[in-house]
Amino acid sequence: DAGVIQSPRHEVTEMGQEVTLRCKPISGHDYLFWYRQTMMRGLELLIYFNNNVPIDDSGMPEDRFSAKMPNASFSTLKIQPSEPRDSAVYFCASSLGTGGWYTEAFFGQGTRLTVV
Amino acid sequence: LAKTTQPISMDSYEGQEVNITCSHNNIATNDYITWYQQFPSQGPRFIIQGYKTKVTNEVASLFIPADRKSSTLSLPRVSLSDTAVYYCLVAPEYSSASKIIFGSGTRLSIRP
């Protein structure tokens, strides 16, 4: 398996534009996580899914953020409208459900988002 | 949830053994200790997990004393490629992922 695949790797957009980040989890993993990392706040969990169902989105900063998982092999994180303070690296991760919360979560390479 | 405290940074040299200690004074009975490694421009990577005593895998060892109020990640004979940020996480095995907090981590720098 190629691991967790995220696209794009880099995204530069203007304030107010819609941004869509994509993630393909590892096949067979039933948990999917979206994280955001900044220098100021570190690594924050935004939302996670179990078997394609959102379980906890309490980390989503505002209504401008939304995430979907239409099937087991694809998820999106959308920001509309984007703002400069959304600039960060966004990581997607997946894990097997065995062993509890996530015994071992596999992270993608991340998408570096810059909103100007 | 148990709060963790790690050194902000550490320096070492190639070939040395590096020990990174994490304090978690209010760890609960059903909490597990997990360590992740993050290289620049990459996502974190699971290193090791344990509950008590000692756990060893091909990458590292994790030492947990009897009172479990701290844990030590041991990296044997480090190389330049071990330069990374190391995170210590403490949470119940079946905790909601939203309760899992990645702190500031320890920035480890390895020199030739």
Count of runs of 4 or more consecutive helical residues of chain B: 0
What is the N-to-C order of secondary-structure elements of chain B (H for helix, E for strand)? EEEEEEEEE
The largest pleated sheet of chain B is described as: 5 strands, mixed
Number of helices of chain A: 0
The shape of chain B, in one word, is globular
Which percent band covers the strand fraction of chain B? over 45%
Shape of chain A: globular
Largest interface: A-B, 26 and 24 residues
Mean pLDDT of chain B: 91
- Estimate the mean pLDDT confidence of chain A: 92
Could you tell me the number of beta strands of chain A? 11
* Major sheet summary line of chain A: 7 strands, mixed
Overview of this protein structure:
The complex is a heterodimer of chains A (116) and B (112). With 116 residues, chain A is mainly β. Chain A has strands spanning 5-7, 10-13, 19-24, 31-38, 42-50, 53-56, 65-71, 74-79, 88-95, 106-107, 111-115. Helices cover 0% and strands 53% of the residues of chain A. The model of chain A has no long low-confidence stretch (mean pLDDT 92). Chain B has no helices and 9 strands. Chain B has strands spanning 9-13, 18-23, 31-38, 45-50, 53-56, 61-64, 70-75, 84-92, 106-111. In chain B, a hairpin with a 6-residue loop joins strand 3 (31-38) and strand 4. The interface between A and B is medium-sized, with 26 and 24 residues.
